[in-house]
Amino acid sequence: MNKAKIVTDKGVPSNSRVLTLLSQLEKINAESAVLDADNARHITSKILHLIQTQEKTKKEMTAKGSTGMEVILSTLESTRDLQTTLNTLYILNELVSVAGGQRICVLVSKGGTQILLQLLKSAIKESPPCEELMVQLHCILAKVGPKDKKFGIKARLNGAINITLNLVKQNLQNHKLILPCLQVLRVYSSNSVNAVSLGKNGVVELMFKIIGPFSKKNTSLLKVTLDTLAALLKSKTNARRAVDRGCVPTLLAIYQDWHQADTRHRHMLIRKGILGCIKNITNIKLGRKAFINSDGMRTLYNISQDCLPVRALDPLINTSTLIMRKCFPKNRLPVPTIKSVFHFQLPVVPANGPVAQIYSLPPEVDDVVDESDDNDDTEAETENETENDDDEKDQNLKNDDIETDINNLRPKQDLSRPFEELKIYERFFPELTEDFQGYDFGAEWSSKSMPVKKPKDPVPIVVPTAGEEQSADLCSTKKEKKLLRNEEQTKQTAPRAGDFENQPALLDINSLKITKNDADVQANKLLPSQCLKHELNREMERLNLEGESASKNLKNCNYACVNGPKNKGGHQCTASSKGCQQFSGSSGSLPEYGSSPLCCPGVEVDHDDDSSSSHSSGEQGVLEVPDTAAALHLHDPELYIETVKHTKSVPEYTEVAYPDYFGHIAPTFKEHTLERLYGVQRTKIFQDIERLIHSNDILDKVVYDLDLSSCPIIDDGESLKFNSQFESGNVRKAIHVRKFEYDLILNSDINSNHYHQWFYFEVSGMRSGVPYRFNIINCEKSNSQFNYGMQALMYSVQEALSGRPRWIRTGTDICYYKNHFSRSSIAAGGQKGKSYYTITFTVTFQHKDDVCYFAYHYPYTYSTLKMHLQKLGSMHSPQIYYRQDVLCETLGGNSCHVLTITAMPESKCYEQICQFRNRPYIFLSARVHPGETNASWVMKGTLEFLMSNSPMSQSLRESYIFKIVPMLNPDGVINGNHRCSLSGEDLNRQWQSPNPDLHPTIYHTKSLLQYLAAIQRTPLVYCDYHGHSRKKNVFMYGCSIKETVWQTNVSATSCELQEDLGYRTLPRILSQIAPAFCMSSCSFVVEKSKESTARVVVWREIGVQKSYTMESTLCGCDQGKYKGLQIGTKELEEMGAKFCVGLLRLKRLTSPMGYKHPSHFLDLENDLIKSSCKVTSPTTYVLDDDEPPFLEEVDYSAESNEDADVNENAADNAPCTQEDVLSD
């Protein structure tokens, strides 16, 4: 080592005593005189005394600019005097003992590790070696090792590992010596090669000679020994060796002994150390098997239950929980196959496509086995010697998904299709050629538009039947006509009331009737006002739409209908003379839930008063349908029924859910995010573990199963009844597991074997005041806003009939965690057996025998969209130019609508017509992902604003032409999918090369954009509405070259990346005017995994700079006006309206007459660079953490490797890559 020269900083007095001594010591080192050994001994003794008595001395020696550390290390390297060496080691020990992190780093950087290891190597040659020297050397090495990334390699090359190991073997009774030696062995073991080497030399067995039953003696030594053993057991080779020697039952016995003896909990660290060893040994399959065979589940469960009352023991409980979850045997889902219950035959099945792969899998693909590769006989004993490159590698991993090729980042307008081919889309843009010669701008246009329907009177709404004159007239106006993929002619105004009937009716619905058992009415002699209440209390029935196919099965059933004369008391409900055997288990009994209050059997029934009265014997009831039509101007139950009749589903649904029929009125009260109770997840996990330990207490009774197509509803009279056979419904199976607990399994997306998250189902037959627990056990995302205050939604029919038709947030004890169900690597697409996750929530029903619906988010069905569009079109004013065209038909035969909205010109003069035609385009789309229903509610808010008569709306229409595709994936929405269309693919990953046969909605929507680009009318803004399940607030994803490059290590100067910052203008505006919008959550990075999404393709290929995905939270907000509140339909619709206001302000800012330099909206480059953009996953970049950590640090994973355990130890705030990959 080069001889150091003492240097002082200006902040250190030059006359400092310690610096003087160090200067003298430096001279001795330079002379290297043997005769000065006494002097060196004397000086180092004085320095040691000063350090031990004066804290400022330590600061002076390690101050910035001081070379005191180098002088001490130089002395240690050059001296041959034992006492001088000891003094120097004492000095180093003092320097690194208190607040020594930075000082240790200095020591390592000065070559201190190598000097210490060389000293150890030379000192061991003495016979016998100096015990004090060995103790001090190992004490310092134990502190230095964790800070030196090359420590393991250096120790192995210097032979230090064997030296330390031999010291331990030879001095098992010398606790003073072996304590620091064990600490160093623990550091050695952090290197995998060293750990294997130590295991081969018998260190694992050696540790068990020190570890033993409870004893108050040598607890410090026992704690260090356990930590060393845990470090060794991270090696799979050592773990297998420990299992082979029966260490698992030994560790369990020791842990149980310490638990029973440590009644005052003074030795929690030792108990935690034992659990650490068990945790590492169970990272391998053999360890988990040995744990189960040793009854470890019961042992840890019972001990954990004893520890629950003591909060200080939570670390033990959490570690025990992690071990038990990891060792819980992996099971396959209790379904015949994880593929969807429903199958749709595609017109084209690409050989390499996902559908072909799924249906080519062997039958046993769903079988779950422990697929860990930890049973290999050998373990790699080569070490990656680039530890110092870890940070760089991590950064590369983070940036791996970012597009780094600047040529790919630069937008390239590429139509990829000849203009002649695109000309067929000209008919969707008649506004570009419209001359309005046939319109009289001075006359009233009310006759040209559909009149606005008047609100219903505040009396019970009558369900129309075939016997009513009004219904008969409606039916007589129906026209049967084949719906073409693209209609040849479209109308200027909204479709007439009969336009929705222009599609081929799937169901011959002639009447809507209410069934009622005659015997029950006679027996109870109910008054008319009590009839419905009694029926609901006994067994609520469902809306049902039955076509001709159903009528064949019901031809022997007699139905009564609501056809009495109108009166203030409502309409009469007649009773049939026979019970309906279709829904009844025995004749004469009330139809089971699954029959329908509104059914269309297609059976001819005489509706005159005489025949009706002849069928009834007894009092008649009243159906008081809540008057949502009066409160919701876009909702009409009668119209909804009409739209449902022409909605085509793969399961051929014949039922309508009550919430979709009644409608939803947003509650007036605030719904706060649910405060998570401490320990709720742990409690749920313990209850799951009880199933394995106390298996005899589990009912395991199937009560609903779509795989049993003949009779999915299994009613035993004791369990809840479930149903999901209606539009957008999704629950595949319900299992009654405990008295008030049910496991629910979701159906996969059609033609897929995954994407389980969306649920929408019905429950009936409940008791009031009893907490029911529901577990949805096959979710796939690795985290959810259910862990951060989000609640499921519930709709009560009893509440609706009482005048409160609304979805409300509900549920307590909510959490989302990984469970023990899994699928094989083949079914998981090549990954190791992928685990599922559980959403669990508890609900206490207010009403007995109610009918309640539960949903992931506020449902918005395709039929609801059709109803809303028809109502909007019928109510628009003459000042609005509104068109509704059918862009194409979906695979399932449903129409994909495209809307055109702008302002009519003021007159037919040339200037007005030119201004009309030359307005810039705004292109909007939504609902490409069926499970993101919030996107439709935002779109509803946008459409209502655009169609309103406010001056601001009129100004917006005069500024732009809006092209809107409100639902890109109707089939997925109808059939209850979460992510895919009937092709089994995520449509938002098909924009680069959409297939016209498999992805018609994407193909034709992209074609509309390509046509606009071809005629030099590229939209000013494109925005695709989405929902986000992992983040709060509303935010945007955009596209920026600069911001993408700034996230990488690619060197590019600002002059090479000239870019207009206008892409940030609209998000900035929204952050100022929309309470739910959060600018800091926005990202403008282009990722490789998103290159085929609408946002990126429209930006790159169409050339739309302001191309966005607008993500709305499924949970709520953590900033602004709505902070701490869950988001509702009112706030979502408001966001849609605020988006329109933002576009209007954008127009004013970018107008030639507006501000030339709107600096308060455009971010400067310096502001962007200063933003602390933080990478939270390989694919999503936000400006702050998604969520704060929970106090309850329970592992949400059940992975069998240590890295997963460490990374997800506080997994409440661990970001999830899966959702981020699936976002957009």
From TrEMBL:
Question: Which cofactors, by name?
Answer: Zn(2+)
Q: Which gene encodes it?
A: AGTPBP1
Q: Which domain of life is it from?
A: Eukaryota
* Reaction(s) catalysed by this chain's protein: (L-glutamyl)(n+1)-gamma-L-glutamyl-L-glutamyl-[protein] + H2O = (L-glutamyl)(n)-gamma-L-glutamyl-L-glutamyl-[protein] + L-glutamate; C-terminal L-alpha-aminoacyl-L-glutamyl-L-glutamyl-[tubulin] + H2O = C-terminal L-alpha-aminoacyl-L-glutamyl-[tubulin] + L-glutamate
GO molecular function terms attached to this record: metallocarboxypeptidase activity; zinc ion binding
List, for all copies, the residue spans of the domain called Peptidase M14: 858-1147
UniProt key word Metal-binding: yes
Q: Please, one GO biological process term?
A: proteolysis
Q: Which UniProt keywords apply?
A: Carboxypeptidase, Cytoplasm, Hydrolase, Metal-binding, Metalloprotease, Mitochondrion, Nucleus, Protease, Zinc
Any Gene Ontology CC annotation: nucleus
Could you tell me what this protein is called?
A: Cytosolic carboxypeptidase 1
> What spans are recorded as compositionally biased (Acidic residues)?
364-393, 1197-1206
Which Enzyme Commission numbers does its entry carry? 3.4.17.24
Active site positions: 1111 (proton donor/acceptor)
| Protein localization | Cytoplasm, Cytosol; Mitochondrion; Nucleus
Residue ranges of the region described as Disordered: 363-413, 1197-1224
Family annotation (InterPro entries): ARM-like (IPR011989), ARM-type_fold (IPR016024), CBPC1/4 (IPR033852), Cytosolic_carboxypeptidase (IPR050821), Pepdidase_M14_N (IPR040626), Peptidase_M14 (IPR000834)
- Where is it mostly found? cytoplasm
- Describe the family membership recorded for this protein in Swiss-Prot or TrEMBL: Belongs to the peptidase M14 family.
